[in-house]
Amino acid sequence: MRRSHLDLFAPNCPVCKHLFNRNSSLQLVHIFESDQDHVIEGSLHCSDINCQSEFPIIDGIPILVPNLREFIAGSASVILSRQDLSESTVSLIGDCCGNNSSMGTTRQHLSSYAFDHYQDFKAGDPNVPVTSSIVDLLEKGLEDLAPLPAGPILDVGCSVGRTSFELAQRFRTPVLGIDLNFSMLRCAHQILRERKIDYDLRRVGGVYDRISHPVQFENSELVDFWICDAMALPFGEGISPFVNCLNVLDCVSSPLNLLISIARVMQFGGSILLSSPYDWSPSATPVEAWIGGHSQRSVNQGRSEAQLDQVLSTIGNLLNCKLTVQQQTNSNWRVRLHERCSVDYDCHLLSIQKQTAQRMECLGEMNVQL
Length: 370
Description:
The chain is of the alpha/beta class.
């Protein structure tokens, strides 16, 4: 965790924010290991004497979630996993555990996302695409983005971090990548500190090949990665002029709470870049919380795009603002599963601007006069 990002983003205690709707600042109390601006291991404490919740910093990643005990218990095997074993030993352990184990799931996810985000850095391989699918998606979304107010950027659902690095290169402003997957943020943090990536790329079945190569970006000193719940962001209102949120909407338990949380921390005049293939699954999102994807006998006939418009209008009324879609298109996103299988998604990609309700009324009056 960068101390500079801690000062800039000034996170609130997730427990106080989530349970009591109060803003209690977090203080850096313990530093057990550090490297210049980075705190590698330590802890943050809630400043409210009635709370005093503690949040650990592990491998440079602060874990700022309201349900810390549940998160740590569910992620303990990943957090405590060794990173110094040889490829052969990890392969043997993987054979013993199998693909359906927690280890197998973690390796598969890292294989897919690390390859997608950083495949173009693996020079000299004619079979490797020259661009990253997630970067292509990001670039297409940024093409017609409205001018942004000054301020730090939030990259929600940053996975292994490529979009965070790209945003820092492009806008030359601090970027905070957030995700709930510790193994992916550990991978992103390795790139941040060591300028290289190590991961196991799935070839077929339970066979993986160790991939290791340098990765370097301009302005990487402006990037940091934190564990945060996107549906309960621990930040003050209007902290960021731009929130990037690619392919997260259909991966959370409450898409509505995700959008409310993002809109709350965004500045007026700022924008959200949002994309989703609307690949709804009850294992990730209860059917009742899907935005479209069911009730085809309804007015919207189950169309997620039309239902999303209504959701944005509802959120605007709730937060006393207007969430206006500025641009929208479709864009491809490819996820590699193994060397003979990839999944192609056709993502709905749109930019949404947050405006004051009063401002929108004035614009409406101007249109009438014209």
